[in-house]
Amino acid sequence: MKKLWLIFAQTTTVGLAVWFLIALLHPDWLPKRTEPPEVVVVQSSEPKASPASGVPSYRDAARRAMPAVVNIYTAKETKFTHPLLNDPAFRRFFDDRLDGDEAQRTSSLGSGVIVSAEGYIVTNNHVVESADEIEVALADGRTAEARLIGTDPETDLAVIRVELPNLPTVTFADDTRTEIGDVVLAIGNPFGVGQTVTMGIVSATKRTQLGINTFENFIQTDAAINPGNSGGALIDTRGNLLGINTAIYSRTGGSLGIGFAIPASSVKQVMDAIIKDGSVVRGWLGVEPQDVTAELASSFKLKEARGALVAGVVRGSPADKGGLKPGDIVLAIGGQDVGNTLTMLNLIAALQPDQQVDVRLFRDGREITVPVKIGKRPAFRQP
């Protein structure tokens, strides 16, 4: 046994010596090492962990969008008349030496989003409405006077423009892919404290019939939105613009976790129209619509509650000229079904003035189709 161990030790020593000589003199004779497989890094839209704490962070999304969100300061002159000046006895006492109207300067604040390198900024109409002066403050410290390009009160959107070089811009997101539960960030200037980012989720989509705007299709979020956030950005976790913050539900004036944003697709449509034509041109029918309830459907002998009941017709309107009458139920416009008054309103608004379309009606227990030439929608008038 001792002899076998001696032979093994000598053989091992000789083998190591031979390997050392080959490695020193002819390393190419030795077999090559196998490289480890290449690791492919796949980027994810999930939040990255903060190096300091390891907690998921949306810093990249905020850093990408914040430079394009601006603070907007407006000022306008208003006339104030003291109620006592309407009293003839009071005016006689002062010998009519009072002018009556006193000019006062009021200011307000809001937010906006730079959408193009040419200086176009989207904000809410109520932020810049009737303003004599509009000043924009960028996140990098620059300020500039802004010029109003156009407004669309029916969606509460407006476009202003500044003349500055090297402007940061935001990228529009595809809001059609937005789902309830998606994480979102709201960026704006609440209460004038300065640019602020808040986080929440998408609470609901396609919110309508809130009585906020004529055309409604809101994204609802619980991200904190307060006065001054109006016109600011609602972004996704990639830093893309998902919507324009426009309104909140509140009993106190502060955030209660119910905020509403105009979707990016609607913003882009209105923005492009304003930049091109200075306003948004929509189709108009000229009826006073009403949703068809189950009771109304039964009384009109309609098989199901659908369509929009014509409660009234504006004299001289396209509907009047086309032969629509109170009591008609609009079932389809241009081949597209009308589910309710909101659907009808959106279908008509999407049509161009002077375009002729077929309107399918339910009248006197049967369906008929009448051709109607669409008109141009007047401002602040019901469809």
TrEMBL record:
Keywords: Hydrolase, Protease, Repeat, Serine protease, Signal
SMART domains: PDZ
Sequence positions that bind substrate: 126, 156, 228-230
Keyword Calcium appears in the UniProt entry: no
The keyword Glycosyltransferase is assigned to this record: no
Catalytic site: 126, 156, 230
Pfam families according to UniProt: PDZ_2, Trypsin_2
Domain PDZ: 282-352
Biological processes per GO annotation: proteolysis
GO molecular function, one term: serine-type endopeptidase activity
Similarity remark: Belongs to the peptidase S1C family.
Protein name, UniProt field: Do family serine endopeptidase
